[in-house]
Write a structure and sequence with these properties.
Number of helices: 21
Strand content: 15-25%
Distance between the termini: 38 Å
Mean pLDDT: 82
Radius of gyration: 32 Å
Number of domains: 3
Length: about 525
């Protein structure tokens, strides 16, 4: 604000517009800055390369905050310019000989050195907004931003992902409009040459009482021009970076992927096992998948459920929307030729860090168990290979599911781990708890009748399924008591409400004494 108050180029502009000029220009500067930032968090190859800070693990949260800032600043900028246009209109119609009235009537005939963009008493604010380059591009990029923000709500992303995906690509129109928006700007300032000849501090007072036979150096009328567009300077580098990011994605996606095995699990969960030349992964990473037979443009993220030690990589896909439903149907109906799959990735997420902790708490909700499938498989292979570099000494695994069918595809892995740990004499290494959050009377009665059996009625595993939700206070208290001097990593792949609960528990149960137990929270972010 101080910058625009002190800049002499805007002296006469301020005389017409008042404080609304500073609001419009300052919000424009902030819009440019945030537009520079908005693309960086979604350059996933760049983030995968630079990963290692808290900010990079919360890239989508940062992306959303920048988007909200853009929406707020756009509202401020638009409202300020509506005030500006009204004041321009009022000054053009004024006939009182005031400074705004005099300035508004300068250079109107055959000259581009005018200050007021409204040249006639018949010109309306709506006409300027929809017929000038700044006005029209402003309307277009505002509409594009509104569509992108409103279609990014949790409800639409979860239930109508295609709408979210397609409207988000209006960012191309947004950036194109942003670059063009500043060209031939409506808000003008005094030119540098005119400032030298008739500086407003010396000559402004003569404009309202100029004699017809004026001969001194302030007799010449000030001249005005558009302020050079600056938006392109702010967004050029991130746009180029994003273009290279998209080129890299296309190149990686074109590399051949061979689907080696297709498994249909209960609860409509599809497992795809694939191979790709040069593909290397770490535990808990994710890939983006495209099936051209369904859509050429849509890419969806899936966490890898295979371990780095395996000679293939796999994902588990739950029916949760139009695209996943169609993908599952396509693989169920395929006869001779396997549908083509394109893969971009893998990309790093917080779960890669699980082996950096001596004690780890893994919490998965529903299909959110997938990153921990990769971790548990990797642990299994490390035990088989007697890996002495394994830093992790204890893992607590919690899985929350609404229905019994969801447990089925993961049972074999847990059963194998149970057996391997027992054979290795490390049965206490893995403690897992399965929570069934939705059940009916028949399930409860069946469990009650077989309560004394050695294995669980629902899963067939040694550990019994718990009906209801975890009491996190009790769980954290027990872990803190068992490991009073350890640093515990808490990893979640699940909903936001559960994340808040776990984050709160981490804070409450971490000791202020640096020599005692500390809980550190990590969350998968898609």
């Amino acid at each position: 604000f101080l910058f625009f108050d002190r800049d002499d180029r805007y002296f006469y502009t301020r005389a017409i517009l008042g404080s609304a000029l500073a609001w419009a220009r300052a919000s424009a500067k902030c819009l440019n800055f945030n537009s520079m930032l908005i693309l960086l968090p979604v350059c996933r190859n760049l983030l995968s390369f630079l990963r290692g800070t808290c900010l990079l693990d919360h890239n989508l949260t940062f992306h959303k905050l920048v988007a909200y800032a853009l929406a707020l600043l756009t509202a401020v900028h638009t409202i300020a310019h509506l005030f500006n246009l009204e004041r321009y209109n009022h000054s053009q119609q004024a006939a009182d000989g005031s400074l705004p009235a005099v300035l508004s009537k300068m250079h109107l005939q055959g000259s581009d050195k005018w200050l007021n963009p409204i040249h006639s008493n018949h010109t309306t604010v709506e006409y300027v907004a929809f017929t000038t380059i700044p006005g029209l591009t402003g309307v277009i990029i505002t509409l594009a931003l509104i569509l992108m923000v409103t279609s990014s709500t949790e409800f639409i992303r979860r239930n109508y992902f295609e709408i979210f995906w397609y409207t988000h690509h209006l960012f191309i129109i947004y950036f194109a409009g942003l670059v063009i928006h500043g060209i031939a700007g409506l808000v003008r300032g005094q030119t540098e040459k005119s400032l030298e000849d008739v500086h407003p501090h010396r000559c402004a007072r003569y404009l309202v009482r100029k004699d017809e036979d004026c001969t001194h150096h302030c007799c010449k009328d000030p001249e005005f021009g558009s302020i050079p567009a600056e938006s392109w300077k702010w967004v050029l580098a991130p746009v180029i970076l994003y273009i290279f990011e998209r080129i890299l994605r296309v190149w990686r996606a074109r590399q051949k992927v061979v689907v080696t095995k297709v498994v249909m699990h209960p609860a409509r969960v599809l497992e795809l096992q694939m191979q790709k030349k040069g593909f290397r992964m770490e535990v808990g990473q994710y890939i983006f998948v495209n099936c051209p037979a369904i859509s050429l443009l849509e890419w969806h993220p899936f966490t890898l459920t295979s371990a780095p030690e395996e000679d293939f990589f796999s994902i588990h896909i739950r029916a949760a929307g139009d695209w996943t439903e169609r993908l599952i149907d396509t693989f169920q109906q395929q006869k001779l030729e396997m549908p083509r799959i394109e893969v971009d990735g893998p990309f790093g997420t917080a779960s890669e860090d699980v082996f950096q902790y001596e004690v780890a708490m893994l919490v998965g909700a529903g299909i959110g168990v997938t990153p921990f499938a990769s971790i548990l498989k990797s642990i299994w292979y490390k035990f088989q290979q007697a890996d002495q570099t394994l830093k992790t000494k204890k893992i607590y695994f919690y899985w929350l599911c609404r229905d019994t069918g969801a447990f089925a595809w993961f049972n074999d892995l847990l059963a194998s781990l149970e057996q391997k740990m027992a054979e290795s004499g490390k049965a206490d290494f893995l403690t897992y708890r399965l929570f069934l959050t939705g059940w009916d009377t028949s399930i409860a009665n069946n469990v009650a009748l077989r309560f004394d059996t050695a294995t669980d009625t629902v899963t067939g595993l040694r550990h019994k399924t718990i009906f209801g939700r975890p009491m996190w206070n009790s769980e954290f208290t027990a872990v803190a008591a068992a490991h009073p001097r350890s640093v515990v990593g808490v990893f979640l792949c699940g909903p936001g409400a559960l994340a808040k609960s776990l984050q709160k528990s981490c804070h409450q149960h971490s000791s202020l004494d640096p020599r005692k137990v500390k809980f550190y929270f990590n969350k998968e972010n898609f």
